Write the C-alpha cells for this entry.
Amino acid sequence: VKFSVRELVYIGIFGALWGAVEMTLGAYLSVLQVPMRGTLLTSIGLLIVLVGRLFVPRPGSVLMMGIVTAIVKLMSIGGFLLNPMIAIVAESALAEAGLLLIGRPRRIGFVLAGALAVGWDFFHMFFTQGLLAGKGIYEIYLWTIRDASRILGIPTSYAIAGVLSMLLLRLALGAFVGFLAWDVAKTVLIRLAPGTIEPTTSAPVEQ
Amino acid sequence: MVKLLKRWDLPAGCRAAVLVASIVLAVLTSGAAGLLVLAAVVAYALGSGDGGLVVIRKWQLWLFLAVLLLLSPFAIGQRDTMLWGIPFSNEGLWAGLYMSIRALTIAVAVTGFANTISVEGITRLFDRAGLAGLGFATGVAFNMLPTLSLESQSTFETMRLRGGFRRQRLARLKMLAVIVLTNALRHADDIVCAAEARAFGND
C-alpha cells in the first residue's frame, strides 16, 4: 500500500500522540507502580490510532502508527524497552487484523479491533517472558498454579477461571474503547469539517 | 580498549544486523556457548557507548532473573538432589541458569541497540530498506512529539483547573481526547503544506 504525503503525516502525528502518552503518562504510572498500567496505556493508545484509522482509511495504517510509536518508545530514555515495544507492535497488528476482518471503517470493526488489541495485554507477559527465557518459563507457571492451588486449598480449575476472568475483563475494556473511539473520531471529523467555526481564542473579552 | 571501541561509528544497518544476530544466537545456543554470546554482547554494548548497559541497572530485570533461578530447580525436572534437606532438580537448576543467560543476552542486546542508535539512523535504515514513507512518518513524529506532549498536558491541566473532571468524567475525558486530536490534526495540515512546498513525494 502506498500512502500519500498527507496520510504519512497523519500516521506520524497519531504515532507521536500515542508515543507522547506512553512517555508522559506511562512514565508517571510506572513510577507510581499502578496496577494494570499496561492495559490503561494500551486503551488510550488504541483510542488514538483507531481515530487515526478514520483519517487514513487504508490497510496497514494502524500497524504503521504502531511501528512509529514503538520507535518513539525505543528512543525514550530509561526503562526496559523490549516489553513495551513488542506490546505496541503486537497490539497495533491485532487492531489492524480486526479492522481488516470487517472491511470498511465501521463501529463494529472498531469494537473488534479494540477487543483484540487490549486482549493481547493478557498474553503479552507470557509471550515476552517466553521469548526472553524460552519455553521453560511455562513449566514454572504451571507449577506455580498447581502448587498455589494446593497450598490455598482451591481447585486448579478455579485458579484457571480466575486467570481467564482477567482476559475477559480486558476484552470487554477493549471493546468499550473501540466503541468510544468511533464516537470520538466522528466528533473530530465534524470539528475539522470545512465551515466549522474555529475556536475564538483571541477574541476580545467584553468587560 | 573501551575508548577504542567507542570510536566505532557503525551505521544503523550494521547495528540492526548485530541486534538480530545477537537475538538469534541467544535463542539457538545454550550452555557454555550461550555464555560466550552473552560475553560478546556485553563487550559490544560496552564499546557502543555509555547507554549500552543501562538495562543492568533495572531491578525488574534482576527480579525476573532471580525468579527464573529460584523457581526452576523446583518446577522443571525430577527432584533428584538434596541441599540442606531441600529436594531440588539438577536439570531444573541448569535450565534456570540457561534461561537467565538467554534473557540477559536479549535484554542487553535490545537496550544496547536502543540507546546507541539515533533517530536519523533509524530513518536512514527505513529509507534503505525501501520504506521511505515509514522513515518520513517517523521523522514527523519526532518533530511533533514535544509540541503534542506540551499541548496535551496543558489541555489536561486547563480542564482540570476549571474543575472539568469533577462531574461526568467519561464525557469530559472524551472531550479532552477530541480537543487533543483536533489540535494535532490542525498541526498536520501545516506539515503537509510544508512537505508539498518542498516537493516531497513518496516516490
